[in-house]
Amino acid sequence: MRIVSLLPSATEIICALGLEPQLVGVTHECDYPSSVLELPKVTRTLIPSDATSTQIDTLVRERLSTQRALYTLDMHVLEKLRPDLIVTQALCDVCAVAEAEVRSAACSLPGQPRVINLEPLRLDDVLRCIRQVAEATGSAARAEELIDHLHTRIERVSQRTERVDDPPRVTLLEWIDPPFSCGHWTPELVALAGGGEGLGRVGQPSRTLAWREVVEWQPQVLVIACCGFDIPRALKDLPVLRSYPHWPDLPCVREGRVYLVNGSHYFSRPGPRLVDSLEILAHAFHPDIHPLPAGLPAAVRVMAAQAVTN
After folding, report:
1. 123: in domain
2. Which of the listed residues 90, 115, 145 is the one where a domain comes to its end?
3. For the residues 58-69, what does the mean pLDDT come to?
4. I need a labelling partner for 278 at 20 to 30 A (CA). Which of 4, 12, 109, 291 fits?
5. Are strands 300-301 and 258-260 parallel, antiparallel or unpaired?
6. Do 126 and 170 fall within a single domain?
7. What residues have CB less than 8 Å from 169, skipping those under 6 apart?
8. 32 and 90, same domain (yes or no)
9. What is the pLDDT of residue 309?
């Protein structure tokens, strides 16, 4: 089977199922595992590489209002790859090629490859997506092994969290300029890790926040996990965050509990590494009861990150 992935998270699922040898094409954003960087790229983005966060937000809103996609397929490359299966999504109109374009492309390709859409809203849905890919590729046994392993890790965190008597008030921002709450599976991760997310809603999209909502919530922990940004890129927007009213007065700022995490690699990708995201959060919230597993990067306190870059 020749597989093309149109999502970084789908690429990670495919590889975790042991199907990397069958993966023939990926998106321009697929970067894990690193070996997929060598595969042909079947997508292009319309977002300039040097765009600011405000410019990106404006472009996204304009495209959504006109129902025009931010990503497009490279049909020439796709035709040469002759896929049997295309894995895409119908969840977010911002994050990938529009579903209609994918369906249309599939109909025009030789053999008319099968298209499967992954549409996770919650953590359990992400595990179901693994089964969905496995069923389409004949990898059911490997999927159950992988899901059992992920369930075990989730349960270990959950059991340790039961010892937390007073969960801190948490805000996890998916964007800074303008501020966005978290959504979908992320509030679940916060709760499992031993925190209380007061602004994000489980199973619902992230949303633009009025900054007063953050001030009124008085978070004791603030996690910055900008969608599509690594830590160095997210750092560039910190001056914007500090410019918001009452920033110095927030409990999380006074107590030095503002953290940066790689939103691109972890929290924004609904694949196996969401469990990594959970373990990173749990260690940041309660390092005394949640050890950081070997090989995972710790959330970076903002003051420590600034010291490195200054």
Report:
1. yes
2. 145
3. 69
4. 4
5. antiparallel
6. no
7. 195, 196, 198, 217, 218, 219, 220, 221, 251
8. yes
9. 46
